[in-house]
Design goal:
The structure holds 2 protein chains of 2 kinds. By secondary structure, chain A is α/β, with parallel strands linked by helices. Chain A has 7 helices and 5 strands, in the order αββαααβαββαα. Chain B is built from 10 helices and 11 strands. The chains are: A alpha/beta, B alpha/beta. The structure holds zinc ion (2 copies). One zinc ion binds next to α9 of chain B. Chain B: GO terms for molecular function: tRNA-specific adenosine-34 deaminase activity.
Chain lengths: 170, 322
């Protein structure tokens, strides 16, 4: 897949949060939301620290964007329709439906989500209207390796492999 | 003249609900055409069966018996017509003189029946093996719950309805630990706060709070609502059990919500490992029967039971469209 330099930088940022999640022993998924070329939300999964299995990075970011819009006096609906989402893993069924509800402009993701993916495991777009454009496959192997490392329970914050993998792909 | 009226009062209608089943538990079984021949001499039946099983086993149809009286199931009909059947048998090395030259095609069950109702239909077409599963039978015949259990479920749905009334919202959700019949947490629609704060999502966060987690500040009227509910419902318990390994997410919990959860909420309940979800009114966007069945998506690592239509009329009066 092809991404512009700016988009690549956004994905790089999302990956930073995925690595942070792994270090924090959370499912390593990182995400940023961009509105008019500005990052308006960023973060990672916080499921374990919140003991709430719904605290995926996308849900966390949706709330940050809401705060941002309130702060700036922006119309929430209109703003979300211009939001581009960059996330290291295909959004799950729950999150992609939330993003469809808000009508975000586009979603760019890294690897497929074999466990919960909103396209891969159950195609949410097949049962509802969804204006959102979705494309995946950016640094997919790296994103998948992060997940594998997490599910293996391997020490997440080993710097050499991190540096190596990231150096190779970007 | 008053008799019928009094009779009505003495027998309050018992609550009803409808299990939202996987297609395989209620749909008619798909059929497949097979060739059926007639054995010339009944004494050779076992010989014919052994020979056919060795030259032409049908691994995909092991739920079917090979023989019915003098009739024998030969093999599934492909694209070739009936005349080719004997040729195929000959090619495989089967002694076609053992059966009549006349072969017919019949439709039989393509997959094994899961429940008795399906079995009874397809067994008439061709003898079929059937292993009854007590749980599936109860679920598919909607007899999982006793009258008193139904009453208990209705009681918790009434709590959800009361929350809608108290808060003037259309959707609420109550999470219950059925082992100790206690409300662990509840929530109601607060989407004006965050678009993610659907009733079910708020209730899930309340459960997280009971486990020393949670992210959203508790609604300012939460305690007030709780005391109103306690006043109205005698013996209503709030709180969670810490016995055993302690609670983990919504494991083992039942959820009562006035309106059919959307895909986001239905999947949130998968992530949270809920055990059962009861709802009142169906919704166009609903994900537990209406637009899809998220609770039983095959490739998910957790499934839960879903029941529709509990106190539907009352829920409709307060509810819907999230
Ligand atoms: Zn998600
Ligand atoms: Zn919802």
């Amino acid at each position: 897949m092809e991404l512009t330099d700016t988009e690549q930088q956004f994905m790089e940022k999302a990956f930073e949060y995925a690595y942070e999640a792994l270090a924090a022993k959370e499912v390593p998924v990182g995400c940023i939301f961009v509105y008019k070329d500005e990052i308006v939300a960023l973060g990672r999964n916080t499921v374990n620290e919140s003991r709430n299995a719904t605290r995926h990075t996308e849900i966390n970011c949706i709330e940050q964007v809401t705060d941002y819009c309130r702060d700036k006096g922006l119309d929430l609906g209109a703003a979300f329709r211009q939001v581009c989402v960059y996330v290291t893993v295909e959004p799950c069924i729950m999150c992609i439906n939330a993003l469809y509800d808000l009508g975000v402009h586009s979603v760019v993701f890294g690897c497929k989500n074999d466990r919960f993916g909103g396209q891969t495991v159950f195609d949410v777009g097949s049962v509802r209207q969804a204006p959102t454009r979705i494309k995946g496959g950016w640094r997919a192997e790296e994103a998948m390796n992060l997940l594998k490392e997490f599910y293996k329970g391997v020490n997440p914050s080993a710097p050499p492999s991190k540096v190596k993998v990231r150096g190779k792909k970007t | 003249m008053n008799a019928p009226k009094r009779l009505k009062l003495e027998t309050p209608t018992k609550p009803t609900l409808t299990p939202i089943l996987a297609d395989e538990l209620y749909k008619e079984l798909p059929l497949i055409d097979v060739y059926v021949g007639k054995i010339k001499d009944p004494k050779t039946t076992s010989k014919v069966v052994v020979e056919l099983n060795s030259v032409l086993p049908i691994p995909e149809l092991t739920h079917l018996k090979r023989v019915r009286g003098k009739e024998i199931l030969l093999f599934p009909k492909g694209d070739n017509d009936e005349d080719d059947c004997l040729t195929v048998l000959k090619q495989k090395g089967f002694d076609v003189d053992l059966i009549e030259s006349q072969v017919r095609v019949i439709a039989v069950a393509e997959i094994p029946p899961k429940v008795r109702k399906q079995y009874e239909v397809v067994h008439k077409l061709w003898p079929c093996n059937f292993h009854s599963n007590a749980y599936w039978e109860k679920l598919s015949t909607n007899s999982l719950f006793s009258d008193s259990e139904l009453e208990q479920h209705a009681k918790f749905m009434r709590i959800a309805i009361d929350i809608c009334d108290i808060c003037s919202v259309r959707v609420s959700a109550v999470v219950v630990d059925p082992v100790i019949t206690s409300v662990v947490g509840f929530g109601f629609d607060q989407t004006s706060d965050y678009p993610t704060k659907h009733a079910v999502m708020v209730a899930i966060d309340e459960v997280a709070r009971s486990q020393k987690g949670g992210v959203w500040p508790r609604h300012q009227n939460y305690d007030k609502i709780q005391s109103l509910l306690k006043m109205k419902h005698e013996n209503l318990q709030f709180g969670f059990s810490t016995s055993g390994e302690g609670p983990y997410l919504c494991t083992g919990y039942s959820v009562y919500t006035t309106c059919e959860p959307c895909i986001t909420c239905a999947m949130a309940l998968v992530h949270s490992r809920a055990k059962r979800v009861f709802y009142g009114v169906k919704s166009e966007k609903g994900a537990l029967g209406s637009s899809c069945k998220i609770h039983i998506v095959e490739n998910l690592n957790h499934h839960y039971e879903a029941f529709a239509g509990l106190l539907e009329t009352e829920c409709r009066a307060v509810s819907c469209e999230q």
